[in-house]
From TrEMBL:
Protein name per its UniProtKB record: Chaperone protein DnaJ
Subcellular location: Cytoplasm
UniProt source species: Nocardioides massiliensis
Free-text function comment from the UniProt entry: Participates actively in the response to hyperosmotic and heat shock by preventing the aggregation of stress-denatured proteins and by disaggregating proteins, also in an autonomous, DnaK-independent fashion. Unfolded proteins bind initially to DnaJ; upon interaction with the DnaJ-bound protein, DnaK hydrolyzes its bound ATP, resulting in the formation of a stable complex. GrpE releases ADP from DnaK; ATP binding to DnaK triggers the release of the substrate protein, thus completing the reaction cycle.
Annotated CXXCXGXG motif repeat ranges: 143-150, 160-167, 186-193, 200-207
Swiss-Prot/TrEMBL cofactor(s): Zn(2+)
Free-text comment about domains: The J domain is necessary and sufficient to stimulate DnaK ATPase activity. Zinc center 1 plays an important role in the autonomous, DnaK-independent chaperone activity of DnaJ. Zinc center 2 is essential for interaction with DnaK and for DnaJ activity.
Classification via InterPro entries: DnaJ (IPR012724), DnaJ_C (IPR002939), DnaJ_domain (IPR001623), DnaJ_domain_CS (IPR018253), HSP40/DnaJ_pept-bd (IPR008971), HSP_DnaJ_Cys-rich_dom (IPR001305), HSP_DnaJ_Cys-rich_dom_sf (IPR036410), J_dom_sf (IPR036869)
Location of the J domain: 4-68
Amino acid sequence: MSQDLYDVLGVSRDADADAIKKAYRRLARQLHPDVNPDPETQERFKEVSRAYEVLSDPEKRRHYDMGGDPFGGAGGFGGAGQGFSFTDIMDAFFGQSAGQAQGRGPRPRVRRGQDALIRLEVELAEAAFGVTRELKVDTAVTCGTCAGDGAAPGSKPVTCETCRGRGEVHQVQRSFLGEIRTMRPCAACRGFGTIIPEPCRECSGDGRVRSRRTLTVKIPPGVDTGTRVQLSGQGEVGPGGGPAGDLYVEMHVADHPTFTRQGTDLLATVTLPMTAAALGTTLELPTLEADLVESGAVTDVETTVPLEIQPGTQSGAETVLHGRGVPSLRGTGRGDLVVRVLVETPTRLDARQEELLRELAALREETHPDGQVHASHKGVFGRLRDAFK
């Protein structure tokens, strides 16, 4: 190479190592074969790489400055004795040594365990007012034989002789770019850096075993289907006896024969004969607390609440009992109990009942009613108009 190496990189003879590296990075980004594959650019890239190989090595640079041949007559890009490697190219493109980027050290044997999820079905009253349940869970626990280290009693892990405890091994390949150095997990120790010569027979060296245990979970008032209760540290124990993950208990609220839940409100439907709807009456409506009394959980709560049916109540009318719904999970107070009334029309009448109804119709001048026809569908503006009215 007859051209001055400093001119090839575009630096002065007194440039320091950082200036030389920056110049090489800039040129490598422009001239790399992946960016400019034409033959002339590739030749230029080889010259820049050879120049950087010499000027980045203090001994070779000193030898070159004294007029010597830094390549020792080997010549040719990638020739014998050349110290340039793929690491330098990675350094040029990513600003750090490829060896440093890949070197992570040995993998830890002790790691945190995974979280676990189980589903629990509860009654509506239990979800509304809270309950304490005992659960049987099947999870990984620390091995009692080896105390989690995976080695048989009386033995212990030893340093891997293949990677000398690093957990990684270097692999060197030659290409037209020079030496390509890569690192991969050590196959002998699977990247741990240590080997267990005598694994524990109980856990096969994993440090944990499966076990069924009983846990007590306290379900707070106000949970609904899909709500998850977190039990910290009650999940799967990690490999090597590592700390356990969390256990999540997901709620599923069973259907209730009387009430339907809607958020914190309860919905119920009461069917009345037309006479009771016309004349009015008072009903004793069961409360959700009545389920707790029936199960024996409590004894001193109201099991019914009076429901006043006003005379002339129409089918579909709703009555709201405030504070009779479900307690709020993340707040104070309770929702409402909304009772919808359905008026039942008799389908079978004896002669006397029919006679009385016809007499009532005559008194109310309803023997031949004209009826009122209403539109079954209204547009958006029609519904807005009715809302404002």
